[in-house]
Amino acid sequence: xxxxxxxxxxxxxxxxxxxxxxxxxxxxxxxxxxxxxxxxxxxxxxxxxxxxxxxxxxxxxxxxxxxxxxxxxxxxxxxxxxxxxxxxxxxxxxxxxxxxxxxxxxxxxxxxxxxxxxxxxxxxxxxxxxxxxxxxxxxxxxxxxxxxxxxxxxxxxxxxxxxxxxxxxxxxxxxxxxxxxxxxxxxxxxxxxxxxxxxxxxxxxxxxxxxxxxxxxxxxxxxxxxxxxxxxxxxxxxxxxxxxxxxxxxxxxxxxxxxxxxxxxxxxxxxxxxxxxxxxxxxxxxxxxxxxxxxxxxxxxxxxxxxxxxxxxxxxxxxxxxxxxxxxxxxxxxxxxxxxxxxxxxxxxxxxxxxxxxxxxxxxxxxxxxxxxxxxxxxxxxxxxxxxxxxxxxxxxxxxxxxxxxxxxxxxxxxxxxxxxxxxxxxxxxxxxxxxxxxxxxxxxxxxxxxxxxxxxxxxxxxxxxxxxxxxxxx
Length: 475
Known about the structure:
This protein folds into 2 domains: 2-142 and 338-474, FAD/NAD(P)-binding domain (3-Layer(bba) Sandwich), CATH 3.50.50; 152-219 and 259-333, FAD/NAD(P)-binding domain, CATH 3.50.50.60. 28% of the residues lie in helices and 22% in strands. The chain contains 12 helices and 23 strands. It has helices at residues 13-25, 43-46, 58-61, 77-90, 183-192, 224-248, 250-264, 271-274, 293-297, 384-405, 431-436, 455-464, and strands at 2-9, 31-35, 97-99, 102-109, 114-120, 125-134, 158-160, 175-179, 198-203, 209-212, 287-290, 303-307, 310-313, 317-320, 325-327, 330-333, 346-349, 352-353, 361-362, 366-367, 373-375, 409-412, 471-474. The strands form 6 sheets. Strands 1, 2, 3, 4, 5, 6, 17, 18 and 21 form a 9-stranded mixed β-sheet that branches. Helix 1 (13-25) runs parallel beside helix 10 (384-405), helix 6 crosses helix 7 (250-264) and helix 10 (384-405) packs parallel to helix 12 (455-464). InterPro entries: FAD-binding_MO, FAD/NAD-bd_sf, Flavin_mOase-like.
């Protein structure tokens, strides 16, 4: 059986980042990145729908060690994939990646102080590893969130979920209905209307859509390395302060956003009906509208927006409960993802299955009573990469600590102070979060069991704060 020091599962942004950290800070460790798909990129390789792009600023979505080369605020999916490919190639990380290696299960042996991983490749195989790092993201790649839409199975046209966009889909001169109002729908809508005969966005309730620009003026006056550093620091702090402002002064932010939205809407679209959310900003994710493309598309004669509850779908139309109906040749169900942690890897400790459900999280990185396992997790209100990199830094610090003291395993043990209550994994009220709530782990109330929700402070704590509290070590 092959033996590793570290098995990284997943070659998306998180997996690439931890691979770089391992090569630079712990080069003596033997590790491999096991990727079930046949290419790197994770989410950015999976999603190929028209208009796919980041919904976080690219200076923080990108790596600290590989600056973003383009002068953009938000980036397209192709640009991000090109960026990741370049980062892997430039740092020779591809030599550590094994494609087509799906990890089915991982069992921890207390006697051996190691994990045994069951791998599906051309033939089944086993790998032994002292540590496993789950860089598998937070949603199911194979099954999106299922919505109960009566009669959808009777529709005679094509039903497409953006997660599985067909490369050969021809929507030219077709009537397209986009169901949903999240980031995917907001980026799809303006892209489709250029070729489609009609595009209608159907939303159950309004969301906040904030226009932003890909400004380029600063590039003319400042050196690129300096500008990249400043941008990254600025957006880490700015986005956090904006979230705090939304939390403590929701009416102020809501009024500002509504005023801007009213200014951008065409006169035939009613603001109160279609763009007045029932919730406060950042109770659900805010959607960014690149260069105002979404609002501009609403001015086109072949676009429309409908707000309400779908009653049923027939062979060629969608009927709303208010009696309105929308003709459609193609229905796109941009209704959300199915949250899932761990990438369907079945974890067990000495043969006993490990459930993620209601298990406490240590330092945003490990699970209570699960030895030598870390999982990469990001932010809801800032770039995912920032949280994943904090975990990577904690891991490298912990490894050096254990090596100096001859320790082979580390397992989090829940403290009585932290166990006095629980806090939700994500503080969002989005449908996909609520649907998965009872299957997710939780945070505690004190110490290393509290959630990481302040990126500037978390950055400092990951690098110079406590990283051994509430851990039991064994030689």
